[in-house]
Amino acid sequence: MTERIIPYWKKEIETASREVLAEIQLMGLKRQIENALKTPFYSEKFRNLGLKSGDDIKSLDDLRDLPFTAKDDLRRAYPYGLLACPRHDLVRVHASSGTTGTPTVIYHTREDLDTAADTMARSIFAAGGTSDDTLQNMMTYGLFTGGLGFHYGAEKIGMTVIPTSSGNTIRQLKFMKDFQTTVIHATPSYLLYLNEMMENYGYKRSDFALRMAVTGAEPHSEELRQKIQKTLDIEVYNCYGMSELNGPGVAFECVFRQGMHLWEDRYIAEILDPKTMEPVEEGEVGELVVTILCRNAMPLIRYRTRDLTRFIPEPCPCGRTHRRIARFLGRTDDMLIINGVNVFPGQIEEVLLKMKGIGANYLIVVEKDGALDKLTVQTEVTADMFADDSRILNKLKENLRAELSALITINPQIEFKQPGSMMLSEGKAKRVDDRREKM
Ligand code: ADP
Ligand code: ZN
Fold it and tell me: Does pLDDT of 97 surpass 70?
């Protein structure tokens, strides 16, 4: 990589020594325990453990003795069981994108939102976003944090923000051209789709001033990033977040794009073996468990994200001391067990994206076939491939089947679909249809 200037939002905190970060974390943890004791949910839990005040926490190791909080706890605490401040101090409510059952809601005070915007600004800045940029935020605005959460961070930097929200691709492209948008924020599946649609709607790359995309909200492979970077000639940055943790910007890539810095002055991260809930060796994959330090209205202690990642132990060339986490493998509940073999949708995506002629959308279908499981991969092919003769398509199908079975040791069925024929969801892409339980 050529020499580049490393942009810091607040250098002192971003490059603070590990000792200073540990002090900040300990103070933050005490404060959060104090806050948690004000909530109906934690006060009962902690009273049973004999925990009466934040000062009962003497060192960061004490965190290991505290119980976990899970998504179901949030549902049980719905709507206000986790409230740690007077109701009139609340200024906004968000909810997780889950579409079924009792929603998990998150509430914020004015100060909480200011801190969240600052974390987001720090993240976008680390990736090289500046006040000269025009940002088109293609994430859904509303209860989902990808809209407003990102929006306020970008405004804080002074970017020109166009809140187009998701969908309406024709308008997205028109605005991108007319306003000479330089940065977009979108899900990886939408980035792929947008990439295909540019040409379909008659645009040329030179119509746009696009230089960078920020993507997240769903697992995606390095291959997807490479493909978008290459075809659009832009830089693509990975951003991790979840509504329970204040939305996007919990961890973000710096200009080196080799893993995401997790902001350790605002979150305490543990990576644990999801079976034993004991720490994995540094650098091994496990479930990310997070204690939030930067929200007063609603504390969360040892929150089980169910997301699988690992710490990258080596220091980053950018000089930031906050540890990096690697691209997510998926969620503990995403892993498919097909005929006894563990398969992550991301592994299949990697293969699909490497193949020339494969289009933007795909769906993994798992069904029962007698006693066995059957795996079918439905995928769009590109327009030129679809127009070609069937022998070429058959060859592609054979190659794809061979590549997939070499990687996941299961021989899948492949079904090709016409370009643009598979439904694209406006929010997170649905990549798996597991029909086994329903059969
Ligand atoms: P949910 O999807 O749980 O209803 P959110 O809308 O807050 O709630 O989404 C958070 C989830 O999105 C994370 O737990 C994670 O699974 C996924 N996610 C977010 N960012 C990324 C990313 N950069 N890479 C992979 N997965 C991500
Ligand atoms: Zn870095």
Answer: no
Say which CATH architecture domain 336-434 belongs to.
Answer: 2-Layer Sandwich (3.30)
Q: Is the pLDDT of residue 82 over 90?
A: yes
Nearest CA to ligand 1 atom 6: 97
Q: Which residue has the tokens 């007698």?
A: 370
Q: Report the chain's mean pLDDT, rounded to a whole number.
A: 93
Q: Are the beta carbons of 375 and 364 closer than 8 angstroms?
A: yes
DSSP for 367-419, written as a single string: EEETTEEEEEEEEEE-HHHHHS-HHHHHHHHHHHHHHHHHHHSS--EEEEE-T
* Domains in the chain: boundaries: 1-332, 336-434
Tell me what pLDDT residue 130 has: 97
Residue 308 contacts residue 331 (beta carbons within 8 Å): yes
Q: Do domains 1-332 and 336-434 have the same CATH topology?
A: no
The per-residue pLDDT for 350 is 87
Share of the chain above pLDDT 90, in %: 76
Kindly give the distance from the C-alpha atom of residue 242 to the centroid of ligand 1, in angstroms, as a whole number.
5
Which ligand is in closest contact with the Cα of 331?
Answer: 1
Q: What is the mean pLDDT of residues 182-191?
A: 94
Examine the pLDDT at 214 and tell me if it is beyond 80.
yes
Q: What is the distance in A from the centroid of ligand 2 to the CA of 327?
A: 14
- Ligand 1 binding pocket (C-beta < 6 A) is 96-98, 144, 216-219, 238-243, 305, 307, 328, 331
In whole angstroms, what is the distance from residue 6 CA to residue 8 CA? 6
Give me ligand 2 centre to Cα 253, in Å: 7
> Domain 1-332: what homologous superfamily?
ANL, N-terminal domain (3.40.50.12780)
**439 has a pLDDT exceeding 70:** no
